[in-house]
Each structure stands twice: as C-alpha cells, then as structure tokens.
C-alpha cells in the first residue's frame, strides 16, 4: 500500500514531542574497544538473541506506518554484523521514502563507500577521537587509525555528507580540541564534540566530563568570531563555523542534556528492546512480543504505550533507572549511541 508519510498521525509523547526518528543498533559487537564505550573484555549478546534482519524489516515497516521518517543504523559496529550490506540494500529498496543514516567507526569500510552511495544513504557519522595514531591506539585499544583516515577520504570523495563524532575524554584528547577544529579548515565535514556519558560497560567510574560550556569557552579563546549555524530541527548539536573554513563543528551536550525538549528519537537495541532514552532500561521487549506471535496492531499499541511513558528528560529517566537498578551503566554498544 502506498503511504504518504505526511498523512500519518504523528507519534506524540505526553510532553508534546513528535517521534519520527528510529535508531537501530544492529549488533553490540565491535572490533574496537573505545575506553568511553566498553572494557577490553566484553560479553557480547548471543547471536541467536539478536533481533534478526527479518524482525528489523518488520519493525521498520510498522514504525514507518506510525510516522517514522528517518532511520539510523548503529551498534556496536554495524559492519561487524554478517550480511549488513545486504540488509541495507533491502531497506533502501523496500523503504525508498525513508531517510537512511549510518554511524560507524570506519575501520571496515574499505571498498564499501561506493556501495553506500548506491543505497542512497543520506549521511555517515564516523567516530574519530584523535588525529594522532598512537593516541588512537590508546583510546580504542586497537591499531586501526589508518583505516579510519582512509574511510574519511573515501566518504568525502564520494560526496556523502560526513560528520565526525569525537568524544572528549579528560586526560586523553581534550588537548586536541583546536587541532580538530583546524581540521575543518580544508575538509568539508562537521566535527561534533560529544560530552562523555557514563555508558562504558564498567570500564571506569564516570566523572563530570569535559562539558559543553568548557568546550565552547576553549574554542572561543582561539577564534575571535564563531558563526552560529542554524540548527536542523531536532539536532542534538549546537553548530558553528569559522569564517573561510570548508567544514564546521558542533558540540553535543549529551551529558548536560539541554536537548531533551526536542527529542524525536526512539531506539531499538541489538536484542530488540525499545528504548525511549539512552538513560532508560528499555521500556519493552519488541522481539519477545514478535516471537509470541503479536500482530502488527498489537505491536503498534505497545509502541504507542511505550512512547506515552517517555519521561520529560534524561535526568528524570536516569533517576528512575537509579531507583530500579542503581548506578551501573551498560556499554553504549548495547544501546546504539
Ligand atoms: N561503532 C560505531 C561508532 O563508533 O561510530 C557506532 C556505535 S557507537 C556506540 C555510536 C556513538 O556513540 C559513537 O559516535 C561513539 O563515539 C559514541 N559513544 C560511545 N560511548 C560513548 C560515551 N560513553 N559517551 C558519549 N558517546 C559515546
Ligand atoms: Fe566500538 Fe563504536 Fe563503542 Fe568504539 S564507540 S567501542 S567503535 S561501538
């Protein structure tokens, strides 16, 4: 049945926010071990417990009928999931009216960029926290710096919109802030500095991170004039450009959470749980419902109820989580950051 996405009833929560953006973590497996994301030793989800591609396609179809317009595939590292390429092609063919985006660490992208371009992908977010090879090894515990830089060049050459996600970790890379802004002088990409969140799967005790204000203050010390860019609706980053530079930069207050009032995101974890917020525990198990034979209407009802239970912001959600399970935080790879 042909659906005009603009005719659908928007998926509202109780706080008046429309939800039109679904983020799917296709796996929790990863070939890197970024310190802010996971420890060296990780218990990955059993492959048989992952949401299957078939289930993901069904979920996308249902969400699309509920007003979702934008998809992001993330993880873990999406290219670690076998047949991810094939799945992406299928999504592009079945749902040509949905915007597709990808978040990747860029290490497994050799010869993939042309393929991505053919799928019609709208943008790639690529994680890179440093421009120094040795530091990359320290932060990710793996020696894949050259591959990531290669992916940056390939993506730019292919003309795909590129954002670089940089988590600033105290004591590791905050001294590279200006070098990374300078990178945008000649490169048409957007570097987005992200406040470190506690989702490191127990790697270390999370302390107050390098904050949005500290990041911006530091940058302002070096540049007399920052040109604020108009934010896309629902953008998580506040974006700026320096006059004459090809690229731009942004800051994401992921931990200060000043962006919750315009949140339009729903998350699907590798195991098929729906999450309203990074900080919640998973509001319901979509995979279990599907396995028990729920029909599409039952799934839609459960999704609506889940969205209606969404709390006002990440602080309220974290408080509820703390009351229920205390202060432990899973790896971001198990949520899909
Ligand atoms: N493996 C892919 C990658 O690294 O881009 C996709 C998954 S990764 C979990 C998605 C994003 O979450 C990355 O940009 C990463 O930098 C970010 N991330 C992971 N752990 C984080 C943390 N504790 N705080 C803030 N951002 C984090
Ligand atoms: Fe892997 Fe991405 Fe997590 Fe780094 S941030 S360990 S690349 S999932």
Summed up:
With 337 residues, this protein is an alpha/beta fold.
Characterization of this structure:
- The strands form 2 sheets. A 12-stranded mixed β-sheet has the order 9-10-11-8-7-6-5-4-3-12-13-14. Strands 1-2 form a two-stranded antiparallel sheet.
- The radius of gyration is 19 Å and the shape is globular.
- It has 10 helices and 14 strands.
- The model has no long low-confidence stretch (mean pLDDT 94).
- It is of the alpha/beta class and 337 residues long.
- The chain binds S-adenosylmethionine (SAM) and iron/sulfur cluster (SF4).
- S-adenosylmethionine binds next to β5 and β7.
- S-adenosylmethionine (SAM) binds at residues 30, 36-37, 74-77, 103-105, 127, 165, 167, 194, 196-197, 199-200, 254, 332-333, 337.
Number of strands: 14
Helix-strand makeup class: alpha/beta
Please bin the fraction of helical residues. 25-40%
Low-confidence stretches: none
Order of SSEs, N→C?
EEEHEHEHEHHEHEHEEEEEEHHH
Strand content: 15-25%
Head-to-tail CA distance between termini: 33 Å
List ligands, each type once: S-adenosylmethionine, iron/sulfur cluster
> What is the residue-averaged pLDDT?
94
